[in-house]
Amino acid sequence: MTVVGVVGAGVMGVGVAQNFAQTGHQVVLVDLDKATLEQALTQIERNGRLSRLVGGPAVDVDAMMAAITVDVELAALGDAEVVVENITENWDLKRQLYGSLDQVCSPETIFIVNTSALPITKVASVTRRPDRVIGVHFMNPVPMKSAVELIPGHHTSPETVRRTRDILGAIGKKAIEVKDSAGFVSNRVLMLTVNEAAYLVHEGVADASTVDEVFRECFGHPMGPLETADLIGVDTILYSVEVLYDSYADSKYRPCPLLKHMTDAGLHGRKAGKGFYTYDEYGRVLPTR
Ligand code: NAD
Questions:
Q1: Which CATH class is domain 3-177?
Q2: 188-272: what CATH class?
Q3: Residue 159: CB partners within 8 Å, gap ≥ 6?
Q4: Any ligand 1 atom below 6 A from CB of 14
Q5: Where in the chain is the domain with CATH 1.10.1040.10?
């Protein structure tokens, strides 16, 4: 049984931990504090119980929960064969974390970087194992999504690519490989769209529900860009747009001030109960008009 370390127990870490645990892997989930980890376990258990109802597989919840241990110390990842990192989209935090992970993990351990936009080669450069660092851009909610972007860095070895493909196959994910470039394919496009949608609200052209209505009703998209922003996390959207802005030094990625304001105000979307929309405890949108 593969031992998988999962660092960061937020929106993505919860989904990644659940996905590995429900497919027979041993998971060690690490975050900064116990309260976050307890909340994550509660959420994983609830998601496991609801899996069938929302179109996912039937989950043996007891077996899944028994496969997960939680810890606030990175040292708990000493036996992990692979570590999936899902911490806040912030270069300084990630740089510091990878320096520490490099020390506590075996030199053989593969580091999977789950980032929205940071170049994988840049992350790999702060470790002594750039051949064993690879990007996997998981989609949200992780257990419900069947494909990921797979991003080898400049030094990622063919063996690491092969093993990562095997690991992804074991949790039911198709890997779509793209070259290493900030934002990859998905978020070069999606983050610009969401940022521009936020500008429409910021400038008073339309309110959030009208913007989303246009995308749903006119284009047939299942979700509008601002519903998507709330699902991803408004703070994560802002940080990702900032990474794109820094990476390309191109004004087309200028972050919308409304995203900054909402991030400062704690309006982080579904995970916070409020963003462009307001949510109940089950993540259902409460009526606004
Ligand atoms: P989040 O804000 O929901 O959670 C981040 C978690 O990381 C928090 O619980 C925080 O306490 C923890 N953390 C921060 N620093 C840490 C450290 N040094 N050690 C351990 N834990 C630490 O963020 P998220 O939405 O889960 O995103 C995580 C990563 O995944 C980001 O890089 C993001 O860009 C990427 N991502 C997000 C989505 C999405 O839809 N939200 C999709 C794909 C990729």
A1: alpha beta
A2: mainly alpha
A3: none
A4: no
A5: 188-272
